[in-house]
Structures are given as structure tokens and as C-alpha cells.
Design goal:
166 residues; Nuclear Transport Factor 2, Chain: A; 30% helix
């Protein structure tokens, strides 16, 4: 069965397509975006219990932070999160360019992480800022959408076509 695609030229067509399941509860895309928000909320709170509740323990989850090697396996990853939380007194994310895609029991969210933090590497008088492009892959479970893979890559320049042309 093929779903009819909304006419992209009509105002609100995409929004209407996403809200089709409104009376039956949130759409899958909305649920995935809620799970994505829970990940960043746990990160900002520095709460290991909240972070553990976000992740899918099996099959082996993977987490790649900007400039670091991949961390595979739930136990290893939770140890890494404990270290990050112990060494990060403050972190805040401003997500932009957020897009979600759901395909059955797997979904992904891509976004730009605009990060403000303090702690190691931050100037004495304040905060450090940075930007990363992230892909968060989720799997649907009986308890909802759980994060399976997080991969964030640093943005080293502002990019853009004008800069590339020079």
C-alpha cells in the first residue's frame, strides 16, 4: 500500500500529513522528536538515570562524540556518560535544522547542535561555544522510542556555498 503524498505547494500540507494520526495519539514522528528531546534534556541535566532510560541497551548501542572514538555497548557507554557528567558543570544545547524520518520501527533525527558549556576547555571568565552536526537513530520498543546510535561531528567552519566558491 502506498500513502498519498500531500501537495507540497499547499500551505500546511506537510503539517497536515504529520497530524493525520492526531485523534489516535501523537504521530510516530512526534514521538521520535519527543525521544530526541529527552536525550538532550538528560544531557543538559547531567542525570545518568535519565540518560540510561533514553538508550536502547540491546543490540549494542553506539555513541560518537565530536572528535572522539566510537563507544560501543551499553555498559561502556554509561561509564562514559558518568565521566562526561562528572567533568561538565554546565552544558546547554540549542538545536536547529531538526528533521525526523520514521521507517517502521527505526527512525532518525538529524540536527545542528549549537552548544554552550563550561568546564574543561572553557575560558576562565565564561563559557565555550561550539557546533556539531548530529544524527540520532532510534528503535521502537514496547516502552517507546529508544536511542540506538548518536553520532555528532564538529562543524569546523560556517560552510555555505558562498564560502566554498571563494
Amino acid at each position: 500500500m502506498t500513502e498519498e503524498q500531500p501537495n507540497q505547494d499547499q500551505p500546511g500540507a506537510q503539517q497536515g500529513a504529520r497530524e493525520q494520526s492526531g485523534a489516535r495519539g501523537p504521530s510516530a514522528e512526534t514521538s521520535v522528536l519527543t525521544a530526541n528531546t529527552a536525550f538532550y534534556n538528560a544531557f543538559e541535566a547531567g542525570d545518568l538515570d535519565l540518560m540510561a532510560a533514553v538508550w536502547l541497551p540491546e543490540p549494542d548501542p553506539v555513541c560518537i562524540h565530536p572528535g572522539n572514538a566510537a563507544i560501543s555497548g551499553y555498559s561502556e557507554m554509561m561509564r562514559a556518560w558518568a565521566m562526561i557528567f562528572a567533568n561538565t558543570p554546565y552544558i546547554q544545547f540549542f538545536l536547529t535544522d531538526v528533521q525526523a524520518r520514521v521507517d517502521g520501527d527505526v527512525a532518525y533525527v538529524t540536527c545542528t547542535e549549537n552548544v554552550l558549556s563550561s568546564g574543561e576547555g572553557a575560558p576562565e571568565e565564561g563559557f565555550a561555544g561550539g557546533k556539531a552536526l548530529a544524527t540520532n537513530v532510534f528503535r521502537k520498543t514496547s516502552s517507546g522510542w529508544r536511542l540506538w546510535i548518536h553520532h555528532a561531528s564538529p562543524v569546523l567552519s560556517s560552510g555555505g556555498r558562498a564560502e566554498e566558491a571563494q
